[in-house]
């Protein structure tokens, strides 16, 4: 097949994809209005029900806790990136998530500085002995860690007073959801994106989940 012919096929595929996308988008819009709003209501009620534990912390206290969670994630992915278990695109993805977590921690530290609040010392993290036993075990821990961060941000969002900090928290929350999807892809979860509405986690549940890691 000539290069032109093969380009033509690609163009045809694009047009077919575009039409299918338009059909799918129309269907998805109808489905969302029929069923999605109910799920959204549940998610909102859930976040409202789980945010109480975060309220007494105040914005600075929430950020101090989030800072430690981000350092936990960053250090965890740093161990994974250095473990030798991952190569090529898998290693790239683990390293990028590691960088995201440390970038989140840095941004939160800067905001704490702006608030005149203390940046907590880095906890002495403890990771499970088998964390880097093999790639599947490491990715299994990653798959349990990401939803903890997601649930924490989702609950804390309702408790935050500052809209600016809320906007920053949403941007991090979104990145954490993408981390979960990336980990799902590496874990061969099909389909990797299978959550329509995220789950909010009460503070106590988050604290219980991260306590074994030294927070
Ligand atoms: Fe993060
Ligand atoms: Fe993450």
From TrEMBL:
The chain crosses the membrane at residues 21-44. It comes from the Bacteria. The keyword Cell membrane does not apply. InterPro entries: Ferritin-like, Ferritin-like_SF, TAT_signal, TAT_signal_bac_arc. Keywords: Membrane, Transmembrane, Transmembrane helix. The keyword Iron does not apply. This is Twin-arginine translocation signal domain-containing protein. It comes from Rubrobacter tropicus.
């Amino acid at each position: 097949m000539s290069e032109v012919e093969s380009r033509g096929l690609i163009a045809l595929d694009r047009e077919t994809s575009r039409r299918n996308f338009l059909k799918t988008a129309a269907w998805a819009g109808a489905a969302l209005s029929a069923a999605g709003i109910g799920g959204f209501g549940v998610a909102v009620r859930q976040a409202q029900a789980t945010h109480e534990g975060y309220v007494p912390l105040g914005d600075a206290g929430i950020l101090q806790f989030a800072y430690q969670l981000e350092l936990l994630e960053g250090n965890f992915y740093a161990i994974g990136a250095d473990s030798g278990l991952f190569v090529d695109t898998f290693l790239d993805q683990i390293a990028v998530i590691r960088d995201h977590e440390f970038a989140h921690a840095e941004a939160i530290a800067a905001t704490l500085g702006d608030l005149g609040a203390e940046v907590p010392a880095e906890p002495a993290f403890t990771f499970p002995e088998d964390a880097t036993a093999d790639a599947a075990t490491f990715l299994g821990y990653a798959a349990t860690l990401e939803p903890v961060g997601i649930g924490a941000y989702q609950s804390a969002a309702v408790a935050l007073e500052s809209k600016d900090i809320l906007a920053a928290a949403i941007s991090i929350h979104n990145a954490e959801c993408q981390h979960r999807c990336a980990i799902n892809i590496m874990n061969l979860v099909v389909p990797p994106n299978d959550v329509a509405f995220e789950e909010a986690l009460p503070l106590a549940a988050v604290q219980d989940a991260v306590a074994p890691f030294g927070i």
